[in-house]
Amino acid sequence: MIGQKGIPASWGGVEQHVDHLSREISDSNTEVIVYTRPHYTPKELVEEFNTTHENIRLVSIFAVGSKHFDTIIHTFVVTLHAVFIEKPGIYHFHSVGPSLLSWIPRVLRPSARVVTTFHSPDRLHQKWNWFARKVLTIGEWTSMHFAHKTIAVSRDLQEYAENRFSKSATYIPNGVDQMEKQKASMITAAYGLQEDDYILAVARLVRHKGMHHLINAYKQLNTAKKLVIVGDSAATDDYVAELRQLAGDDPNIIFTGYQTGRMLQELFSNCYLYVQPSESEGLSIAVLEAASYGCAVLSSDIGPNREVIQGRGFLFRNKNVDELQEQLQYALRHTEEVEAVGKTLRQYVHAEYDWGNVGIETRELYGSLFEDEVPIRSKAIAK
Fold first, then answer.
1. pTM above 0.85?
2. CA angle 217-220-224, nearest 5°?
3. d(Cα 48, Cα 104) in Å, to the nearest integer?
4. Distance between CA atoms of 11 and 203, rounded to whole angstroms?
5. In what order do the strands lie in the sheet with 90-94?
6. For the chain, what is the mean pLDDT?
7. Residue 114 CB: number of other CB atoms within 10 A?
8. How crowded is residue 166: how many other Cβ atoms within 10 Å of its Cβ?
9. 351 Cβ partners below 8 Å, 6+ apart?
10. pLDDT above 70 (res 373)
11. What is the pLDDT of residues 92-132, one digit of tens each?
12. What are the structural domains, with CATH classification, of the chain?
């Protein structure tokens, strides 16, 4: 696994994807090697993980910690490490940025197979300058042309990739576990939160996640329910400062920073409504997690969100603050409908987005990569 910051996942959709997928596909016949970056997975955590997991091995390689160069430099180094040291049968690149280098094992290890996963149209994200967007556009092309198989995590991304590059992509979505609700305890002690008294959003605080839209819409409401924003900077300190300035001194807008474990479970379990205002996504794992807890979801109407939410939740036109405010107000006034759509959505995501099924489909895709191989002995007999 190449391209992710590391596992165990503490934040980041790609990291959560790789974490869950690695656990699903590893067994006594399959070792999964996951490359990590020291600033994400500390050395002591790598050592602890490797002593407690038989079929998943973390390999920590240095990273430069730069917003624009960290990922590509780390990907280059670990790809060469994989080619010359680990020599796996399959190189699985995650995201279009790392997929820029998917040609390396095709050239240096022609007997191996290369898989890429198209997680998101990264070039559309506002944090990138024009040069980075151009490079990410090339990354989309390499993701589709150098891989033996390309995976798209949503139907919307699959259609986008196939229409843009006239090459097929395999749809295998992100997944979710069946989550059990937790009573409010830690969140009450830390933030004074109780069941159903807050609206929740969980995301990295980067501009394309649309948290500024949510804060602007929330400030137009007349409600006692709080707004809780879970997440923090991803080399986007200026944007985080902008959000805090936008929130001002409103005590009902709460920034918790990144949360994991029991705290995050309680936050999902007890929210009245989950809001996902992203301008661009691949397929949001946070939305799937919220739905798995039975949360009603209000999201922007971008394609990947519609796949999950349409007919099972609430939608607003992307970037339209007035419509977001109207939908928030509607949800606050219709408690019974909010409860009903939460139950419906939970049933749907448990049926359609299960990590076990994602693992099975990925294993089948891996197996298909070697179907054209003929054993050496058979070749000799035929000759």
1. yes
2. 105
3. 31
4. 9
5. 90-94, 113-118, 149-152, 170-171
6. 91
7. 22
8. 8
9. none
10. no
11. 999 988 999 999 999 999 999 999 999 976 655 556 666 66
12. 13-175+355-380 (3.40.50.2000), 186-352 (3.40.50.2000)
